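Q: My collaborator sent me two sequences in one message, no labels, and asked for predicted structures for both. Can we handle them in order? The first one she listed is below.
A: Yes, handling them in the order given. First sequence, followed by its structure tokens:
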Amino acid sequence: MASMYCVKCRAKREDPSAVKVTMKNGKPAMKGKCPTCGTGMYKIGAA
């Protein structure tokens, strides 16, 4: 579970289905969807 910021809701949300991804520059990140509004959320630097 990752706590990410939803820009649309303007609040921190938990997404249990968030996935670990690697950005083009090789840094780790978490990618998920807001459970409230469905907007894509992204957290850079999550291991």
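Q: And the one she listed second?
A: Here it is, processed independently of the first:
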Amino acid sequence: MSLIMALHKSVQTTRHTIKDIAISIRPYQWVKNVLVFAALFFSLSFLNPEAILFSMAAFISFCLVSGSVYLLNDIRDKEADSQHPEKKYRPIASGSLPVSTALTFFMIFLISGLAIAFLINWKVLFLIGVYLCLNLGYSFGLKKVVILDVMIVALGFLIRPMAGAYAIDVAVSPWLFICTLLLALLLVLGKRRQELAMMKSEAGSHRKSLEEYSLPFLDGLMFVSASAAIVTYSLYTIADDVVARFGTQWLIATTPLAIYGIFRYLYLVYIKKQGGDPTKMMITDKAFLINGLLWVAMVFSILYYSKLIA
């Protein structure tokens, strides 16, 4: 009987650990890694099985490495997170997941992700390495440096589509990369604004760099980023190399959906006060999600039709 009880307790502990690990690696944040497929999508390679395979491998690699980064961040921020009104319930911050166990899974996810990147090609491995170094630098001090903290997070977004392009060996318009960087800055700045607005004078105890920010300053940076993102996306759709590659000028028709998406995000941040977790916000807001799906469907239709008549 004692053996059965011990076995049952062991199974329960294992399930609890797996649940805590699953929460800590933030699977819902893997939505960001979908940017890896941008090159597959915009290069018209989505009908190439080999390109799909390499893109999927790059996506999995980023999921594993980003999961390891989240574990490391939670370990490093354990004390600060324990003072946050929401983050204090995270497994590591609350003490539910031991640091030693989190470190073990950090190594498992990291080594697995780097191994997959190595199997794709050295360029993808290099970019994954840059992504990892940026995040390690962020975790170990750079997150305290005003402006640089948001730039590092935004660069993480930019590296994903670059890795996707190198994974399938295609060229992507520089306008698309610039637009991705600006949109990433908008999301990160929105998150900083929500943290500052929610925690006010105590914000610095949670995130040191927040002591150097103010709401008017963040508002200005957000509107600059949003405006520049709209302009660069519009220029991307009518760029000569893009029109020549796709054989169509109709990508400009997707601009209203892109503008609506940016405006909807600003509405959610400023009116609904939901900028604390941009990824969760975007996948749970019906209007934003429907608009995103319509944008994808419209871009796909335009590119696929242009390829059929070429």
